[in-house]
Specification:
Blueprint (H helix, E strand, L loop, with lengths): L1 H12 L2 H20 L3 H30 L1 H8 L5 H30 L8 H28 L3 H29 L6 H9 L2 H12 L7 H11 L2 H28 L3
Helix pairs in contact: 1-5, 2-5, 3-5, 3-6, 3-7, 3-9, 5-6, 5-11, 6-7, 6-9, 6-11, 9-11
Length: 260
């Protein structure tokens, strides 16, 4: 598994798309500090970019890598190797490569502008941690979609639709539900709906860490009461970890049954 992980990691590290991904965040960081020298405001600006772009990149890269390396995967399957070893190794290699591009791309400009001397260092660390979680989550989902559809076009379509649903459509359904049932106590419902969407959960965690949950109104007070505690933070991180483990488990289960 480590050999496959290492190969996948360095194969992606040499890819021009990885360099483009890295340079995008690098330039974004420098531009933010060119426009505004305050680290805390730069972190707030990065919030929506990380929350929306990181899942999209993870989804696209995951599907692209699965279909482009399909022949190599079939070659590995012909060897005396476990399918679990092959797919987990490829998954970890891709996820680590994308996460490293994100961390280095944003980390370099923030370090140069003194993030370690700023009070926003923990907010920035949380931002990078959430970005890593979202990368691992959506790469796992994209691998699962790739294993489920042999047709490349259909696989791409389902992957983009999944990202669109979780990033945009889900929030619309959530908001509509809150409006239609505003006469009922919706505290637990709002918390449950947030847990079922890793993008929403990540956004709430960062907003609370930035101490701007007042922008969410009454719902923000509910989230602050739950997610703002140590217990709430542990639950949140556990849920995000489950968002990685559950799709990965289904991915392995699908790979074991799939006829290549």
């Amino acid at each position: 598994m480590l050999k496959i992980l290492k190969y996948s990691f360095f194969d992606l590290a040499r890819s021009r798309w990885s360099y483009i991904y890295f340079l995008f965040y690098l330039l974004l960081g420098f531009i933010l500090f060119f426009l505004n020298h305050e680290v805390s405001k730069a972190v707030i600006t990065l919030l929506n970019i990380i929350i929306i772009l990181t899942p999209l990149i993870g989804t696209i890269f995951g599907v692209m890598y699965y279909y482009s390396s399909k022949e190599f995967t079939e070659l590995l399957l012909a060897q005396p190797l476990k399918r679990t070893t092959i797919f987990i190794g490829q998954y970890l290699g891709l996820s680590l490569s994308l996460s490293l591009s994100l961390i280095l791309g944003l980390g370099i400009p923030f370090v140069l502008y003194g993030v370690f001397l700023s009070s926003a260092i923990w907010n920035f660390t949380m931002l990078l941690l959430i970005g890593g979680f979202l990368t691992f989550i959506f790469v796992a989902l994209s691998f699962l979609i790739g294993l489920s559809f042999n047709d490349k076009i259909k696989g791409f379509g389902v992957a983009i639709l999944l990202w669109l649903f979780l990033a945009v459509i889900y929030d619309g359904i959530f908001l509509l539900s809150m409006i239609l049932f505003d006469d009922y106590p919706l505290d637990k419902f709002a918390l449950a709906m947030t847990m079922f969407n890793p993008i929403d959960l990540s956004r709430i965690l960062i907003l609370l860490k930035l101490d701007i949950s007042a922008l969410l109104g009454y719902t923000g007070a509910v989230f602050q009461k739950f997610f703002g505690t140590n217990f709430g933070m542990i639950i949140s991180m556990t849920v995000l970890s489950l968002w990685i483990l559950v799709p990965s488990w289904f991915m392995v289960k699908k790979a074991l049954k799939k006829d290549f």
